[in-house]
Amino acid sequence: MKNSLHLYKTDMKNIITNWVAAILIGGLMILPSLYAWMNIEAAWDPYGQTDQIKVGVVNNDTGASVREEDIDVGNELVETLKSNDSMDWQFVDEEGAMDKLEYGDYFAVIVVPEDFSEKLATVISGQPEKAEVEYYVNEKINAIAPKITDKGATVIVEEISSSFISTVNGVIFDMFNQIGIELENSLPDIIKFEDYIYTIEEKLPEIKNTLDETLADAENAEGMIDDANSLIPRVKEATDQGLSTVNETLAFIDEAEGRLDEIAPRVNEDLETIQQAVQDTNEFLESVDLSSQEFPDINQQINSWNDQIDSTITSIESIEEILRQVQDQEPNQDQETADNPDQNGEDNQGAEGNTNEEDNQQNNQEQIEDALNQVTAMKATLQELQEQLNQADEMIAEHNEALEEMMANLKETAQFTNDRLDAFITEYQETIEPRIKEEIQHAKSTLESARNILTEVQDTIPEAQEILNRTAANLTDGEEMLQNVLAEYPYIHSKINELADKIRSVEGETDLEEIIDLLQNDPDAERTFFEEPVMLNQNKLFSIDNYGTGMTPFYTVLAIWVGGLLLISLLATDPHHVETYTGRQIYFGRLFTFITIGFFQTIIVTLGDMYLLGVEIREPIWFILFGLLSSIVFILIVYTLVSVFGDIGKALAIVFLVLQIAGAGGTYPVDLLPEFFQAINPYLPFTYAINLMREAVGGIVWSKVQHDVIVLSAFGLVALIVGALFKARLNKYTHQLMKKSRETGLFH
């Protein structure tokens, strides 16, 4: 180790005392930093300069008319892009734009076709078409520019889509608001409709039963109408017969009335005559003297009385006959009324009217019956008187010894007859004759009413038949309709139940008032919301200021490795006088020199990153320390390769550099790399050195730092062991190879 330190001190002395060497070494210290600084500065903020990228915009849109309103989305897009500074938009015609794109003056061209607005307007038609924007890009100009212009084109499409969606949503939510208001106004009707549906659902079985009963009733009614139609001829016949009977009865009543008018005076005269005769008889009987033997005069008187009694009895029999005819007409009148359905219907309108009529009829019958009894009794009395007169006449003719007793009986009978006649004459004049006339008038009135009613019935028979026929036709139609309804009942029943179940399901899952509240909105606020429904709230963990800062770890680590390559390219790994040092002493002695120069290279590049370029480093001290660790490891690797393997080691160091640039994940995430580079990534020192520098730039996670420091240090330890073990053993072979290569004059 002493000789190694001596060799190191000698190198440092030679650098300091030899100004040429000092200048060269100074250049080697600064040169790697320039590599890092230039790349970092160049990549400082490229995406912040996209406003310098020229993109041609061609608007061929001719506009469209939507519901009598003109729209021109192309012009709206142009106006929007004029205030957009994300790129250098150039508004030109299509021919000029394509020429400049071909010659590289434009990175991309966006063409809005003629039917752009027209296709957007198809959204309100039944067959909407998607509008298209033509995008042309010249990808040979630059690898990154197409990606940037792609983003610009996407921004344009998003801008159009956002504006279109905003407009459409504004209209939609305005309609929703109106629907919500209408729903709120119609809420009572909706609730009432739901209640109707539930009521119908509940009443469906009852409705079914009612329909069945109605159909059965209709079928029965149809049979009844057929029966009624078949009875029409019988009704007409009965009506005709009734009219004939009424007319005959009226004729008979008129005849009876005429006879009454004819015999009434004679009856009164006969009654008065017979009364006078009875009185005369009484007087005669009082004055008669059976001993005087005036029998011929008595016989003559009796015969005269018999004639008068016969005449009176004949008159009384006429009155009796008229009374019996009137009495017989009362039931006939009742029967006529009963046979008349219309009159019967009128009579049935009130129980009180029916009762009064029945009472009147009964009273009339009783009075007629009483009059008949009196007439019959009077007739019997007269017949008895006549019989006794005849007996007296016979006895007088035979000079019967019982004549005296018979005459006494005759006096008694005559006196009784006289009394009965007085009462009968009074009853006849005051009651019987007026009642007979009244009953005749009543019978005539009733029969006239019956005739009028029968005439009306006869007149209404054709109308009734027409009504029955029409009703039968309507019943047939109604029956057919009922059968159709009953045939559709299972379908209606299932649909009503299904509708009710759906209403219950909707009521269980949703609240109509909540839906109304949801529909009622501020259309402008909703439109603004749907212009950007989701806002990206960025929370930067270990935030990086710009792209250059993000690339600083990679370019700094790369510069440190490049610094090592420069050292092995310009500096010798073996001193010129190696006879006094062993191979191991030479390895360690010259290693210290390389590490020292690498130390200054790292200090310069890291301090330059922070203070010259202004890179924002969260942990500047650790940034420098991690850089120094990386430098030591890289120098160990590079120096060992060249010191042990000579020119082959130089080639290996360059190959190692190339692999690490591609596979360490310095520019792109490892996950985006091909499988080969993903496979070698864990075995590359760059991977861990870049991770350490990133931790210092963005913020340290010590568990990761610990892991990366251990793995990175392991690379350096392996290189140190290889150099210590194989330097002396392989040195002779590497010198022979170097000597052989220099014989060509191509290598130094």
UniProtKB/TrEMBL annotation:
Q: Which Gene3D superfamilies match?
A: abc type-2 transporter like domain, Methyl-accepting chemotaxis protein
Please tell me where this protein is predominantly located: membrane
- Give a Gene Ontology cellular component term annotated to this protein: membrane
Region of interest: Disordered = 327-363
Keywords in alphabetical order: Membrane, Transmembrane, Transmembrane helix
Organism domain of life: Bacteria
Domain ABC-2 type transporter transmembrane spans what residues? 23-168, 526-724
What membrane topology is given? Multi-pass membrane protein
**Does the record carry Membrane as a key word?**
yes
Q: Which GO terms describe its molecular function?
A: ABC-type transporter activity
**What name does UniProt use for this protein?**
YhgE/Pip domain-containing protein
The organism encoding this protein is Gracilibacillus thailandensis
